[in-house]
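Hey, I'm writing a tutorial for new members on how sequence and structure tokens pair up, and I'd like a real worked example in the thread rather than a made-up one. If someone can provide the structure for the chain below, I'll link this post from the tutorial.
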Amino acid sequence: MGQENWTQAAERIYERFRIRFIPAGEGIAESELELRPEDGNFLNMPYGGILFNMADVTAGAALRSIDAMGLTISGDVRFMRGVPNVKMLRCRAELRKLGKSIAFVDAAVFDEQGQELAAMSFSFARKREPNGSL
């Protein structure tokens, strides 16, 4: 994976989902999302699907940080708390295990006060590069 390809992917993710990536490290990805009023449910808390999507995208970015790619095959979510009037979400994802065909990534989503809103574990089917290598 070239840096240019990752930059283009990050721009598309921002345009589509408004998720902005923050430089982290190898096997780690961090992101943030400024919420809009329409991102809240009837209790004025962020929709669970927004948290899940953010974590899934950020977990995929953790794979990309080590020049790997994968397709999500499972995601286990544990919603910890709902907090009304959240303005900003932050997510951190960390690669736990990289196998030949499956990768495991853990992620957590926090509000702007640092309260953990959700914890997730993802499994990714490793995708082969166009040249056939993993």
